[in-house]
Amino acid sequence: MQRTLPDKLPAPRLVIGGGDVISTSGGVYEHHYAATGGVQAEVPLAGPAEVDAAVAAARAAFPAWRDLDLNRRRDILQELARRLVADGERLGAIATLEVGTPNLLASSSSAMAADWFTYYAGWIGRSAGEVVPVPAGGALDYVLDEPLGVIAAIIPWNGPLISIGMKVAPALAAGNCVVLKPPENAPFSALRFAELAAEAGLPPGVLNVIPGGAEAGSALCSHPGVDKITFTGGGETARKVFAAAAQALTPVVLELGGKSANIVFPDADLDAAATMAVSAGLMMLSGQGCILPTRLLVHDDVYDEMVTRVVAGADALTVGDPWQPTTMMGPLATAAQLERVTRAVDSALSDKAGKLLAGGRRPDGLDAGYFYRPTVFGDVDPASDLAQTEIFGPVLAILRFRSEEEAVELANNTQYGLAAYIHTRDLRRAHVMAAALDAGGVAVNGFPIVPSAAPFGGVKQSGFGREGGIWGLREFQRTKNVYIGLQ
Ligand code: NAD
Predict the structure, then answer these.
(1) Out of 50, 79, 255, 475, which one is annotated catalytic?
(2) Does ligand 1 have an atom closer than 6 angstroms to the CB of 319?
(3) Whether residue 165 has its Cβ less than 6 Å from ligand 1
(4) 325: helix, coil or strand?
(5) Which of 83, 135, 379, 386 is close enough to 196 for a disulfide, judged by CB 3.0 to 4.6 Å?
(6) What does the record give as the active site (predicted)?
């Protein structure tokens, strides 16, 4: 399985003010191909000097981008969307090489990112301000929605292209310039995106890409030239981002982790519920996704039947070479991820947090890459780490409940609040549960992967702020009131 195609990877570099920069002031990251562990690239990383340069380039490009004819701004974003679709195969190959995503599934993320650009291109020229009635006559009062200026977009490695769609599309549509910081281990999708953006006519400096780690992230978050930070990542990093942003009182959007409950009632379509539990709860991105339903809550009446189906589904998943069209689950993204998942499963076993029903080990014959079998624990103790902490890997915790009230209590009983899922055919129950669940989003009988027109984000330790729809656009606008005396 020594299939690597490094020629598909864009040259590792920084893109600042439209020019390529090779600087190693933030160090060099040795990039390993997740399916073999082999080194396939050396990634130069931004340090504080490149952060300064990128912010300055974005600041310099801002007035012209803000004032550009709106039809032209819209045309550029629409053209970028078209280019993302046309480049699907290449971007899919990059995702496979970058983080080991099965190639069959990887190609879809460029279409998803394109959808976000098309959607937000549609808002350009349509986000009008308001005229506000003032108590005394003889005056006109109106509200302007203005861009903020320079947006720092810090993204994780698990789905870089989708994060780019969710952050960069609304930021640019609102008239801002962007400094995009992908992580060390996933710079390639962002760099290819920058090439497509330039080809689509995005002026130099409007988008700057600076791959980097904690040093670059921290310099960016405390930079006085940044007007807003939009961050997706883990809670521990988010606290550092928030603390750094406090220095310049820079506002932040934080999209963090989750441990989303997937609640199955006896009246549900069990086929559909079991399919989703396996595909979204275990297989998708090898479990490395913030919104994935990693806690399965099953009513006592159908518990045994659901468990049987889910375990059979997990055991049937083909784990292996991400280039093979039959592969359903690729490797984890990095050696650190493999270590994290292995540690979490080993602790769950030694804590007796639940009964191991599937997986719990690496697959046979795939020792070189970062593979792990889809793993299922049943009758999980709700207080255990296994039930409480995001693992970010293919590990499903199944819990049992006996009433709606108990389901709500279990579902809400974690620090997170990103998403929740319900399977029922009972309309009353669907609405009652949707209202009672402590989550930024609730889905009934389905798994919507972040639709561009809907608000996406968390509550509690899953963060704050929203991406998607008008809510996502407003995050990148400031409000100005204008009062004009007419007497
Ligand atoms: P992470 O927090 O380690 O890194 C996220 C980003 O922050 C990376 O670009 C990283 O380089 C950067 N960073 C690291 N230290 C920094 C610092 N001191 N200051 C500023 N930036 C810094 O997260 P990860 O391991 O890349 O991703 C996994 C986490 O992201 C999980 O918790 C997952 O749930 C979460 N996530 C959330 C969403 C969502 O939309 N809610 C989506 C995907 C992933």
Answers:
(1) 255
(2) no
(3) no
(4) coil
(5) 83
(6) 255
Write down the pTM of the prediction. Answer: 0.97
Positive or negative, the Cα torsion across 379, 282, 462, 268?
Answer: negative
pLDDT value at residue 3: 40
Cβ-Cβ contacts under 8 Å for 261 (sequence gap 6 or more) = 293, 295, 297, 407, 410, 411, 420, 421, 437
Please give the distance, rounded to the nearest whole angstrom, from the Cα atom of residue 486 to the centre of ligand 1: 51
205 contacts: CB under 8 Å, gap ≥ 6:
17, 18, 57, 58, 60, 61, 177
- Ligand 1 contact via 416 beta carbon (within 6 Å): no
Residue of 380, 358, 355, 364 lying closest to 309 (CA atoms) = 358
Least confident range from 81-90, 118-127, 130-139, 460-469: namely 130-139
pLDDT in tens, 351-385: 999 999 999 999 999 999 999 999 999 999 999 99
Q: 305 burial class (0-12, 13-18, 19+ CB within 10 angstroms)?
A: middle
CATH of domain 12-255: 3.40.605.10
Mean of the per-residue pLDDT values for the chain?
Answer: 96
Answer whether 439's CB lies under 8 Å from 260's CB.
yes
Query: Does 293 contact ligand 1 (Cβ within 6 A)?
Result: no
Please enumerate, as own/partner, the contacts of 316-320 that have beta carbons within 8 Å and a separation of 24 or more: 317/278, 317/282, 317/283, 317/374, 319/363, 319/366, 319/371, 319/372, 319/373, 319/374, 320/1, 320/363, 320/366, 320/371
Query: Which protein residue has the closest C-alpha to ligand 1 atom 16?
Result: 214
The full set of domain ranges for the chain reads 12-255, 259-442
Alpha helices in 68-159 (DSSP H): 70-86, 88-99, 103-106, 108-121
* Residue identifier of the C-alpha nearest atom 23 of ligand 1: 233
Q: How far apart are CA 258 and CA 263, in angstroms?
A: 15
- In a 3-state reduction of DSSP, which class is residue 355? strand
Residue written as token pair 């400031």:
478
pLDDT band, residue 1 (cuts 50/70/90): very low
Superfamily of domain 259-442: Aldehyde Dehydrogenase; Chain A, domain 2 (3.40.309.10)
Query: Which residue reads 């602790």 in tokens?
Result: 347
Distance CA 438, CA 436 (A): 6
Q: Is 255 annotated in the active site? A: yes
CA angle 38, 43, 44 (to 5 degrees): 155
Q: Is the CB of 37 under 6 A from ligand 1?
A: no
